[in-house]
């Protein structure tokens, strides 16, 4: 860790400031540790790797190796990279499993990426379904269902692109999709406000089923939670800034991106939504994201899958009966 002078410093790594926010401790019930599976999706260069390391407050993922100039034009296919990190947040142990998707949106054929991601999410549901049907349960079964997908939007300042709309629409039915604006410090505060508005207009116009924080009218939430959720809805999509370096400012650890014209403080609410998003993911809404995955998204998938299987079995039985009748 370096301080502003470039020297090694011994500052404590805790740089976030959210412990006093409402809603903390809401899900502090997991003694063994709460598993949380988070997928990161977004085009190359939007800051996913930096975000991951900033979220975990340590270097979990190394920066991607850049191809040589001769190879730079060859689009690498998308792949899944897994990172397992044990965290402790506000007294709660979290077994964080991050699934990164380098190579997404690299080529002209995005359909293959869409299918790969959807199949990955559904394959985790299939594993739970198979486990539920086992006579003897596997006590070591690891639930790898994706509890949230962070979708990184490019800070163009325009509006959503076709790739964003398509992907979020496809995944929204299978996972809690949370849109975020990557490298948001490239927009001025006014540009950011307008960009957020345009994105949310597109979300409404195209009926994109993003995770929209439980509506207090639908749920039996207390007043404080209802207010918090209403505020979080107005912040969507979250504007993120990532930075792995921690500096020492008057004895206080801060993460800043330094530019010739000034600094961007990652954990300062006036500079970015990073701190708030981190709090949502690892504290206030970790329980809701997990519950929604289990009770709504998985249940829907399970019903669809079993109905399809039942319909297929009925069709096979009808065909067999027909063949038997012909043979008789
Ligand atoms: N301005 C700005 N630059 C950032 C931010 N986060 C990361 N970067 C820089 O953007 C570049 C790409 O960051 P990565 O974290 O490697 O992006 P990625 O999305 O993982 O990209 P791939 O590894 O190519 O898939 C690096 O030079 C980072 O230092 C940010 O919040 N703001």
Would you give an account of this structure?
With 328 residues, the protein is an alpha/beta fold. The chain has one domain (34-289): 3-Layer(aba) Sandwich (Rossmann fold). The protein is built from 7 helices and 9 strands.
Helices and strands in order:
Elements: E1 34-42, H1 48-56, E2 81-89, E3 92-100, H2 110-133, E4 148-153, H3 162-172, E5 177-181, H4 189-205, H5 223-235, E6 238-239, E7 246-249, E8 252-259, E9 262-265, H6 274-284, H7 286-327
Guanosine-5'-triphosphate (GTP) binds at residues 42, 44-50, 63-64, 102, 183, 185-186, 241-242, 257.
GO biological process, one term: cell division
Biased composition (Polar residues): 7-22
GO molecular function: GTP binding
Q: Can you describe this structure in just a few lines?
A:
With 328 residues, this protein is α/β, with parallel strands linked by helices.
Straight-line N-to-C gap = 81 Å
Reading off the top of the CATH hierarchy, the class is best stated as Alpha Beta
Helix percent reads 25-40%
CATH architecture: 3-Layer(aba) Sandwich
The value of Rg in angstroms is 22 Å
Strand order of the largest sheet: 2-3-1-4-5-6
Shape: globular
Q: Regions with pLDDT < 50 over 5+ consecutive residues?
A: 1-13
CATH fold call: Rossmann fold
Backbone structural class? alpha/beta
Total helical elements: 7
For the biggest sheet, the summary is:
6 strands, mixed
For the record, the count of structural domains works out to 1
- Beta strand %: 15-25%
Family: Belongs to the TRAFAC class TrmE-Era-EngA-EngB-Septin-like GTPase superfamily. Septin GTPase family.
Biased composition (Polar residues): 7-22
Protein name: Cell division control protein 11
GO molecular function: GTP binding
């Amino acid at each position: 860790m370096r301080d502003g002078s470039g020297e090694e410093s011994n500052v404590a790594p805790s740089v976030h400031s959210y412990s006093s926010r409402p809603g903390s401790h809401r899900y502090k019930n997991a003694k063994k540790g709460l598993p949380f599976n988070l997928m990161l999706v977004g085009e190359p260069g939007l800051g996913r790797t930096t975000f991951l390391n900033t979220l975990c407050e340590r270097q979990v993922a190394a920066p991607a190796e850049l191809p040589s100039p001769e190879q730079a034009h060859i689009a690498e296919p998308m792949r899944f990279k897994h990172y397992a990190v044990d965290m402790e947040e506000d007294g709660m142990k979290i077994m964080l499993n991050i699934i990164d998707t380098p190579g997404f949106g690299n080529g002209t054929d995005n359909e293959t990426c869409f299918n790969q991601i959807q199949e990955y999410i559904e394959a985790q549901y299939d594993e739970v379904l198979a486990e539920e049907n086992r006579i003897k349960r596997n006590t070591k079964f690891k639930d790898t269902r994706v509890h949230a997908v962070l979708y990184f939007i490019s800070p163009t300042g325009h509006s959503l692109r076709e790739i964003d709309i398509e992907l979020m629409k496809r995944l929204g039915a299978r996972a809690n999709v949370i849109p975020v604006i990557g490298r948001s410090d490239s927009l001025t505060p006014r540009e950011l406000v307008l960009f957020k508005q345009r994105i949310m207009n597109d979300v409404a116009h195209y009926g994109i089923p993003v995770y929209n924080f439980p509506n207090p009218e639908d749920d039996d939430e207390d007043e404080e939670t209802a207010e918090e959720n209403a505020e979080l809805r107005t912040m969507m999509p979250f504007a993120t800034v990532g930075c792995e370096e921690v500096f020492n400012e008057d004895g206080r650890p801060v993460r800043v991106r330094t530019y010739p014209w000034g600094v961007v403080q990652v954990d300062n609410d006036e500079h970015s939504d990073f701190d708030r998003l981190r709090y949502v993911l690892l504290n206030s809404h970790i329980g809701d994201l997990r519950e929604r995955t289990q009770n709504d998204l998985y249940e829907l998938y399970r019903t669809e899958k079993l109905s399809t299987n039942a319909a297929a079995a009925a069709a096979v039985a009808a065909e067999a009966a027909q063949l038997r009748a012909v043979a008789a």
